[in-house]
Amino acid sequence: MNGRGNCYDNAMVETFFKTIKSELIWPVVWQSRQQAANAIARYIDGFYNAVRRHSSPGFQSPVAFE
């Protein structure tokens, strides 16, 4: 770790935040903070972790990899 505010310290998390913002947050006008929070939770629990293919396990989804 190089210190506070260095994005290279946490590149995987920064990539995740960019993905969730570009695919879920920016294209939608949310009516409430709660609605956005629920959508983010569904995205993380349902789509991102279980279905999406990742490069590190040979372009398989986490479920298929396990």
Task: Tell me what the structure shows.
This is Integrase core domain-containing protein. InterPro entries: Integrase_cat-core, RNaseH-like_sf, Transposase_IS3/IS150/IS904. Residues 3-62 form the Integrase catalytic domain. Pfam families: rve_3. Helices cover 56% and strands 0% of the residues. It is mainly alpha-helical and 66 residues long. It has one domain (7-65). The mean pLDDT is 79.
Helix/strand-derived category reads: mainly alpha
> Roughly how much helix do the residues carry, as a percent range?
55-70%
The shape, in one word, is: flat
Order of helices and strands: HHH
Separate helix tally: 3
The rounded distance between the terminal residues' Cα atoms is: 30 Å
What's the multimeric state? single chain
**Main sheet record:** none
Strand content: under 5%
**Overall radius of gyration:** 14 Å
Number of strands: 0
Number of domains: 1
Q: Please mark out the parts with pLDDT under 50 across 5 or more consecutive residues, or reply none.
A: none
